[in-house]
Known about the structure:
Elements: H1 2-8, E1 17-18, H2 24-27, H3 33-40, E2 45-46, H4 50-64, H5 69-82, H6 87-90
Parallel strand pairs: 1-2
Amino acid sequence: MCDCYSEKGIPWENVSSFNSDNCLVMKGNRGGVISKLRSVQPKIVDLGCVCHLANPAVGAALKKSLFDIDDLLCDIYNHLSTAYVSKKALF
Length: 91
């Protein structure tokens, strides 16, 4: 990361946050990526895994929903499986 930022001319002062999964390699206080980043940018904010934060919120919302989630997922699948996708949109 340091080499990439240097090549692009991005100063570490512009790096404000870091997001990754919650494994020890990334989040470890002594040898994790976040600890290495903090040695160069002490003000960096560790955001945590957005998916792991959103999962309980979505689960709670679905329990309170007024519609059948299985029907919704089937409707989304059916719509997307027959929708036209331009080749230009893919590239």
